[in-house]
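User: Hi! I'm working on a homework problem where we have to compare a predicted structure to a textbook description. Could you give me the structure for the chain below?
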Amino acid sequence: MGTLGLDMERGLFLGIDFGTTNSVISIFDFREGEALTIPIDGANIFPTAIQFETDPEDDTKLARVFGSLAKDAAIIYPQSTVLSIKRYLGIDEKINIVVDEKEFSFAPEQIAGEILGYLKQKADEYAKEELGISGEFSGCVITVPANSNDKQKKLTKDAAVLAGFDEDSIFLRLEPAAAAISYAVNETADKKVLVYDFGGGTFDACILRIQANSGEPSISILSTFGNNNLGGNDVDNIIVDMIYEEFKKLTNNEVDLYDDNADDGVSKRQKKTALARLSQAATAAKERLSQSKTTKITLAPFIQEPRIVNINMEISREDFTLYRRNNSLGDTQEVYENFRDKNLVDLIDETIRAVDMSLQAAKLSVADIDEIFLVGGSSSLPLVSEKITAKFGKEPFKSKISPALSISQGAAYYCNMIMMPTVKGPVVHEKTIHPLGLEIAGRRFMEIVGAGKDIPPSGLTVEASELLTTNYDNVSSMAIVVYENTSPDGAANPSVGKDGMKRLAGTSLRGIPQGPRGKEKVKIIFNVGQDNMLKVTAKSMSVDGVVTELGVDALYD
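Assistant: Happy to help. Predicted structure tokens:
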């Protein structure tokens, strides 16, 4: 293996697939001309987990344990272990942990920053010890779900800053596009490709056009459609539900593991430990059922108070496929209703509907797709291949790259483009995903930035074709409310209340001169960066200095 070149133009960058369940980091090896996944603690796949404990040298401080050790610790120390932190980015609630009966509170981005900091540390050590490079990774490319919102993206960048990366050297790129790069580097023919990305916390369907130019493949994103509320964790919960049903039978439905306050003779600590074991057993069973038709689940003992309960059951692939979820499993009522009575077939059908929406947005038919590329751990489910094969009349592409590594390695190719712009490699033409615009009078939508617009490296700047005017006499401010039309139907100025309209942000332009309705005019400018983050500027046309900017730093104040 060759070493990384030492003449990088912009420093050393790390490609990071920061996943809900697992994370992977990769770098680009210039001399070999390929991406290289960095092993962390002896493995390419790193569980996205952290456990807190009292620092043995200073009992007023906390020490951290990461990865596999933290994941395993969840069984013994569930109250001080955090899993699936990515699902909490964008949710306005703190993460509370308990260590030695002391409670601590963290913002989700702080926890994510701790984990990213550990990944950075391991990458720095690998570069020094294995590749002979001094210094450290100052920049990174972190992949995000195609359907993630601005707040989630902002908090991801905040976490990377907390991890020690330079703020100006943090780039966000879409997960499906990154995965497609790792596929496209060896492609020799022009193709339209569906990237089916079924990760731990989200699902994305993305359609790309790959043009196999000599030495420099060109990738264009034609469309993407996703579901941020469906992922491999929800598939795991079907098996969790199956095991929990068996537990309820064994205890005559007298123990509720999800109710810490129930007077059922089981302590809070043992309940949390049992649930951590239950989750891990379900995930392992799902992975085994991807390879075998049956699997055994043994949890002995599962609980020991008020009496010992052992679970010993066998689950077939057919049982797993057809079982309908029955229990809330600690989910909110809203989340539970989304999954109640649904089985694995229903969940996979939801992903196929997202595929259909992506095809529709790209104005393509099933016959237009030349290749299907599976990404994410849950894409290895046999039912996924069966559904894809039945729909497209062809089996998914058998990549030499593990679906679990492809996103990180694609991010490493992005790093190559940043570090060494003069080196040839895949070129990704970033495009806007959905139309963006403002709410106008009558609660209608005025489109300003259309879907499928090329985003140059410096960002896409679009000025609204019409000036906004005041709707009432003698007002001194104007509401600026930004929407994304995720399901455009071609209608002119559709209602912002229709299905598919997503409110992104709102602010007010204050200080405009009072006068008759319609006299004051306001210019609106949208700027979309290559990471699909948005900044909106509103300027008064009659008074200098009356201006407001709505960017990710102010979206959710």
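For your comparison, note the following. Confidence is low (pLDDT under 50) at residues 1-7, 552-557. The first helix runs from residue 67 to 76. Good luck with the assignment!
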